[in-house]
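SEQUENCE WITH STRUCTURE:
===
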Amino acid sequence: MKLLFNTNFLYSPMDGVVAVHAPATVANMVCGFDVLGFAVKEPYDEMYIRFTDKPGVTIINLDAYNLPTEPELNVAGAALLAMLEEIPEPIGFELSICKHIKPGSGVGSSAASSAGAVVAANRLLNDRFSKQDLVRFAMNGEKVASGVKHADNIAPCIYGGVTLIRSIFPLDIVPLTAPELYVTIVHPQIEVRTADARSILKQQVLLKDAIRQWGNIAGLVAGLLQKDYALIGRSLEDVLIEPVRSILIPGFDQIKQLSKEAGALGGGISGSGPSIFMLSKDEATAKAVEQQMHSVYESLSLDHHTYVTTINDTGVRFVNQ
């Protein structure tokens, strides 16, 4: 009998368990604060869920992060509780989580947990809810993490690929086609809490800066749809958020400069940081960018992890089904 995950606490497929891989995501895509995001193939969290006789949500941690197991304090638990509010019959879920996406890393750790939980639970429920419903439920997890309901990590995690969040209230999600892009991510081993990164942002901006930002967002979307790499590169500019948040990330300016010199189209802060991402047209360039990232953080004697991956067109993926 094949077991699901390489952990010390395992279920087999005969236990009525739905198992998923919930991917990391890159939010904002530089200029698209809270409105653009994409999923990546690595890293991802491993999660599995089953029905229990006890109504409500039971959380089991299979990793060393010691995250809350009280459902209302756990991002995945909060998402499932929101789902249960719209189910008339009494239902109990037992959710086990083995996180490989470090909390506070800036690559959608809370979104992976929230989205993975509701996608897996929905399969147990014979896909009762739509993807948009699942995003709506999972946003409750983001509120636990940051105090704000936002969907720029949640939507690509559930829909896959690149997504545009045209509106939160009412929720309006637009999946976008994109050319093949390689993604290089570096995660310096420091933590930037999303709530803290939001608290330092300016509440008012100059009209000229807003106009420039709107042009970049429109250019980036057009570049993706038209598969215009040059336009994508020109549009990966943020004049509102990055200048403020980048001061929280050691070596940011140097990494961005050296990555572009190595051939990257561009990039910036992943979500609220501290991770930094760069987009490239091919794998060789993406790996050259990775070496530049290594060189910067080695010179700063700062521990870090890197990933060279691609855009994940699937989002949360079912395992062994």
